[in-house]
From TrEMBL:
Family: Belongs to the TatA/E family.
Keyword annotations of the record: Cell membrane, Membrane, Protein transport, Translocation, Transmembrane, Transmembrane helix, Transport
HAMAP family in UniProt: TatA_E (MF_00236)
Skewed-composition ranges (Pro residues): 70-100
Organism: Streptomyces boetiae
Subcellular location: Cell membrane
Official protein name in the record: Sec-independent protein translocase protein TatA
Length: 100
């Protein structure tokens, strides 16, 4: 028990053929292949984006070559940028009068 044999695979294939039809099976297989290809490429991209080792810290400079900068304010204190264009007004539908 627990193993799938040739008989079970054939039964599943016949059921899938009956449910989806012979015309849609190539489209389903094609879209399944595209999805698998996209998933594979995204997984490879995630692996290549992850750094293998942390980057070394830049060496400290001696002497006052530049003025120290102030730390950035917390997110709650930062001003929000103004939108470039105002949002268009929302048209409200008239409310119909109740029928007597």
């Amino acid at each position: 028990m627990g193993q799938i044999g040739l008989r079970e695979i054939l039964v599943l294939a016949v059921i899938i053929l009956l449910v989806f039809g012979a015309k849609r099976l190539p489209d389903l297989a094609r879209s399944l292949g595209r999805s698998a290809r996209i998933l594979k490429s995204e997984a490879a991209a995630m692996k290549s984006d992850a750094p293998a080792a942390p980057a070394p810290a830049p060496p400290a400079q001696e002497g006052p070559t530049s003025a120290p900068s102030a730390p950035a304010p917390p997110a709650a204190e930062r001003p929000t940028p103004a939108p470039s264009e105002p949002a268009p007004p929302v048209a409200e539908a008239p409310i119909p009068a109740p029928r007597p």
